[in-house]
Amino acid sequence: MKITNVKAYGFWAGFRNICLVKVETDNGFYGWGESGLSGREKAVIGVVEHFKQFLIGKDPCQIGALWQEMYRSQYFEGGRVLAAAIAAIDIALHDLVAKSLDIPVYQLLGGKQRNSIPLFATSVKPMGQAMVDDLVNLKSQGWQVLRATTGEHGNPESASVFEPRESISSVAKWMTIARQELGPEVTLGIDYHHRLSVPETVSFINRMPRGTLDFIEEPIRDESPAAYQSLRKMIDTPFAIGEEFTSKWDFAPFTHNALTNFGRVDICNAGGLTESMKIAALCELNYIDMMPHNPLSPLCTAASVHFCAAINNLAWLEHPPYDGSMEDYDKYFINRPTVRNNALEVHCAPGLGVDVNEDLIRNLPFKYWEAPRLHKKDGSYTNW
To answer: How large is the average pLDDT for residues 115-125?
Structure first.
């Protein structure tokens, strides 16, 4: 079996662009993968075109060797763009090889360790009573692990104002109220989307009664392990970190130094299933449970299900909170994963178990999209 083609598709669906990769072989087997570098999909597609030049003619079963060649062949190893392109191809190779063997992908990863994947749900309502009511409603639907966002989603068409100090005052107030209304049995966290500094994060946590939050996700930017080390010494709220990391090397200082408590790996950005399994092992070495990032299409969800099924150290998988795209997803994706009893079942269909209607996506337009821009009141740029 030899690779005969590698195709990349970038197209607008619902509220975002989706970047998919298809790997084809000479005996008719094919696999699909996805990249998660949202907003820079054209860069990923360009890298896939480069990789395609030497992947054609290769044995798709040599997944690990092909990963090494893609990662190291340009001398300038790693980085978010390369890792996201590798991830899409790697996932597609796993899908392809598993289908050729008539087995589910999780069998290539060592077999399944669970029959269903526990999920956490997210409220994207603006911070305030609407957010609290939404969380209470999610609890009434049976969700036991809940996450809130800070509500500053911004507008890419025009700059939005975000003042961290004003935010932490409001968010601390409403998360305290949320905990009171939800009660102690629900696991509750907040995603701060790396919008704070170290002292701002400390102030935020100190404004709430102890035990209000079970985790805080990405409170500060991730480039500096030393900054997280400083923060770790000042607060004891568990951290959920890692959705921006693209390799085991990125994760290493955070796992070795106990700087995170939940590993937020994104398999569509962190080198695919090959690298994510190594990251999971690195986290398991340090008693860190995985909490995978899953904000993309049903293909990302399907790949994440197989990853979560195959590892022992799983906390929960993210259930995408976004709406407005399910109609498109039902058109473009065949047998997409669906939530049942607030979990995703692990099925035994060959490959990832999900397919793509290639005829429908082939000529769909790509829409240039920029992430929202946030500025402080003085005009300086801050993180979205």
So the answer is: 96
